[in-house]
Amino acid sequence: MNLRIISVLLMLASALCGIETPDAVDLTPLSSDEGPARAAALKAIGASREPRLIPFLEDYRQNSAWLLDGKVVLVLDSLDDGQGQPLDPLTRVPLGALVAKSQLAEVPVRMKERRLAGEAIDRLRLADPNPVNRLNAVVRTGDGFTETARVMLVPIAAADEVPAIRRAAAEGVAMADLAVPASRAAAAGALATLNSTRSLTRLKDVLATEQDDATKVAVNLAIADITSYQSRIRVAQTIFSGLSAGSILIIMALGLSITFGLMGIINMAHGEMLMVGAYASLLVSWAFHAWLPASFMPWYFPVGVIAGFGAAGVVGWLLELTVIRHLYGRPLETLLATWGISYLLIQTVRVSFGDNQAVTAPGWLVGGWEPSPDLVLPWNRLFIIMLTAVSIIGVWLLLTKTRLGLLLRATTQSRRTAGSLGVDTRRIDGLTFALGSGLAGAAGVALTLIGGLKPDMGQEFIIDSFLTVAAGGVGNLAGVVWAGLGLGIINKLLEPFVQTVYAKVLVLGLVILFLQFRPQGIFPPRGRLADV
Amino acid sequence: MSDMPSGMRYATVPPLLRLYRGGWRGAALWTDQALPGLALFALLLGVPMALALGWCDEAFVSKLGRFCCFAIMAIGLDLVWGYTGILSLCQAMFFTIGGYAVGMYIAMQGPLLGNGIPEALYVVSSEIGGMTLPAFWQPFGHLGFALLMVVLLPGLLAFIFGYFAFRSRIRGVYFSIITQALTIAMWLLFCRNDLQLCGTNGITPLKTFAGFDLTDPVVKIALYEVSALALVGTVLLALWLTGTRFGRLLLAVRDSEMRLRFAGYQPVWIKTAVFTLGAVLAGIAGALYTPQNGNINPADMIAVKSILVVVWVAVGGRSTVFGAVLGALGINLLYSYLTSVMPSTWPFVLGGIFVGVVLFMPTGVIGMWRRLIAKAQTVKAVP
What ipTM was assigned to the predicted interfaces of this complex? Predict the structure, then answer.
């Protein structure tokens, strides 16, 4: 609170004094002959909350501040040739022409001033208006464990407007308190309540040298608390990354489930629909870059999702029209033909785009949401999960609530009956196929958020999504969702214990084993459909 | 799947027994029955003669030897897919396992480094210093054991996997996808260094086999002859097998498994048997391939390789033994020609062949040819 009042007062003072610089601090006393005046000036600077003063102070400590016509300026030139360019101390704008060395008066910097300037820099950083910089400064100061650090952090822990910064400052204060035997036990308790993973090493160091038994118990308790918090966080992270890994799988498998399950078509080129979607979003980002102002750039991504869906949908529709239409009822042939098409698509993209490409994720998807300290859920993965949820709901609504869905289900159940009732089954097939492919395209766009673009990027998903559909039960949307989530999470749960490759092999084994016992998937169909 | 009655009719007729009798009908029979037999003779005797006469070089013969191994693997798949209707996408995996069994034997013949560690294993190992030979490598030093493993490893794996899959009635595309998953899992495993199977490098270099220097041209020609002989043997075996009662059961599984079951048969055993046989043939092919190729590595069993086998059979004509051979040899020769002339076009040609064959020639080259013959014969018979 004090800091703020001082800065407000200083602002008022400077306004009254009519200083023309936009800042609130008078630098002139730095050149004073009297030590106390210089110290007071440095203290005032430290309290000013003006981050631009940090580089000035750093230069000041290097003896680059000079007095020119009664004002403090920066001269960064070496002055060896007798002249230098004076700069405004804050904005670093050149002030007039070169001046001779003789015109410059020395601003004295002694040991004490250096130390005070260092402290002022720390204080300025701690008071940085930008919360991110401020948090970094608080963390850095807290890691010093010193009494001075403690003094600076106490007001921040009490009064900063950002909770995360208050917490970091409180951690710093408690870690500094650990140095004093009398307050050690209380500080350890405070750290435990803060779930401070950052202080774990410090607590262990303290424990190693601690003599007092009661304090030892307190520190041990704190360590146990924090460790258990850490493992809870780890479980949450694992489940979350499993969820997001499973999400892409679910969108892919939803598309497959529509084409494979509802239409009985084995589309080995489904993975390439994902690739088509990803490259479509790449083209969109290029187009935005080339033709639209930079301020539109963050919005290329939603457009990319739509473009990816559309492009893959069109490719899928063409594929159905030219190849698959002629192969209905011959699943093994469809498998081979679509595999050939996937091969052609991969080669075409490789020839036209080269081997590796990447899109930059839009700014609003960088970073993450921190619902609890140290548990960071990246925005891009949250977005993928959200996209999956939207896809699932959309597909469900489409299948159950719209006329197209009704016709689609009718065609699936009995092509001939539906046809004789006037349903244009050919058209329905095309639309269904386009929809399934479009979903894969959307998954491809989502995938660009967490990885690069390769012509064969769809290949690594195709088997997994087939297994998801097979495990979930063909044509069964709920089953697909559960199977996708299950496979994603099991994979991530296994990874800490065995290496990634073995986790994958184990999951493949598990699916094969699962199909031994439930060949029809998680929710097997009943009645006449049971043996098709 | 009942659109290929001709396969059954012709497959049961031994080749070479019918001679040219003149006219359209004779020509047709000639191409269908005698030509394949002649082609096999040409493979066995004609190629070494051509080499002796200087019409082709030794590299070509060696290449053809490797393609003969592919053809053996293709016949295995033809029995499983063409005749029985089980689209297996792990044929190259069995091939590679067979290849590894022989490769390990050859590697044990030297060069050896460290405490008698084969070079291939030594260079990828992280514990060079105190490393000893892994226990499971020891028996592969004996030729008999290695050859037994060539048959036993793919056979057992196929038997166990096939039995459990067929028992739970995993059919059609489900089976295809599961076999592809199996190949991918196995490929991932073989790529690991800590499995002591030489990692992604595979087993290389391969120098001596049972005392023969594998770089010696005479040994290469001999290996070619062995491969060609094995191919002829496999063709005869397949022709005989498809003519037996068991062969008819295979077709019955393909055409209506449900009816076969209701007639009192147990398709699970028929399918397991043919799947195992296909795997063993692939294993033998891999074992013949490895010494000729000079190395065997996990890349030989990536998913694409198994699908390629399917393409060979599909192009040649499935449910015909000669179709598999024709497809395997033909496409590989085309591949080696195209990749040397204009490498970038190959993927497009392959993809095009894929789609084209499935769409326009579902019975493959031989099926097309037989349809033409049948047409010619009907025209002849009507007046």
Answer: 0.77
CB contact under 8 A, A512 and B182: yes
Q: Which residue of B has its CA nearest to A459?
A: B303
Characterize A418-439 residue by residue with b for buried, 16 or more Cβ atoms within 10 angstroms of its Cβ, and e for exposed.
beeeebebeebbbbbbbbbbbb
Q: Answer yes or no: do A512 and B176 touch at CB < 8 A.
A: no
The 10s digit of each residue's pLDDT in A500-513 is: 778 778 887 787 77
Residue A65 pairs in a beta bridge with: A74
**A105 conformational bin, left if phi > 0, alpha if psi -120 to 50, beta if neither:** beta
Residue A519: count other Cβ atoms within 10 Å of its Cβ.
17
Contacts of B365 (CB under 8 A, 6+ apart): B315, B316, B317, B323, B326, B327, B330
- For range A346-373, the mean pLDDT: 79
Give the closest-approach CA distance of A514 to chain B in angstroms.
10
Q: Do A209 and A235 contact (CB within 8 A), yes or no?
A: no
- For residue A377, the SS3 value is strand
Q: Which helix (H) or strand (E) holds A84?
A: strand A83-84
Whose CA is closest to B93, among B335, B273, B306? B306
What are the φ and ψ backbone dihedral angles of A87, each rounded to 5 degrees?
A: -125, 150
With an 8 Å Cβ cutoff, are A519 and B170 in contact? yes
Least confident stretch, A143-147, A217-221, B221-225: A143-147
Q: Is B160 on the interface with A (CB under 8 A)?
A: no
Peptide bond into B205 cis (omega under 30): yes
Structural Rg of chain A based on CA atoms:
33
Are B188 and B318 a contacting pair, CB within 8 Å? Answer: no
Q: Which tops the pLDDT comparison, B382 or A155?
A: A155
- Collapsing DSSP to helix, strand or coil, A445 comes out as helix
Task: Write down the pTM of the prediction.
Answer: 0.73
Nearest to A515 among B168, B314, B358 (CB): B168
The Cα of B11 is separated from the nearest Cα of chain A by a number of Å equal to 22
Rounded CA-CA distance A61/A304 in Å is 51
Q: What is the pLDDT of residue B127?
A: 65
- Candidates A268, A506, A512, A516, partner chain B, best to mutate (most B CBs within 10 A): A512
